[in-house]
Amino acid sequence: xxxxxxxxxxxxxxxxxxxxxxxxxxxxxxxxxxxxxxxxxxxxxxxxxxxxxxxxxxxxxxxxxxxxxxxxxxxxxxxxxxxxxxxxxxxxxxxxxxxxxxxxxxxxxxxxxxxxxxxxxxxxxxxxxxx
Length: 131
Hints:
There is one protein chain. The chain is an alpha+beta fold. It folds into two domains: 3-46; 53-130, no CATH class. Helices cover 50% and strands 26% of the residues. The protein has a four-stranded antiparallel sheet. Helix 1 packs antiparallel against helix 2. It is rod-shaped. This is YvlB/LiaX N-terminal domain-containing protein. Residues 6-36 form the YvlB/LiaX N-terminal domain. InterPro entries: YvlB/LiaX_N.
């Protein structure tokens, strides 16, 4: 039995025996619940987290529209954020809306596919995923 459940049962037993009233018991239970929340937050903070990564995928298709080349690159989100910030300043002709949307999505913790660009004439596709 967990320590919190044992303490709760002990408090309820004291109420049943008339040693505590309901208001006193509720106050004690609130303290135990808050201590449990603090412990849970501390455990979450100490738990190692897997760093989020961005996966870039470029696909080129042959004349029959079958993928014949895939290029995949994986980078930490922090590296991509830095590169995008620099790229927006150093390469003004870069599509600002797409880059800003990508940057905003990364900063806000988005996941999944963030960008999907296709050039149908060249048969190329560029996708960006966050995991």
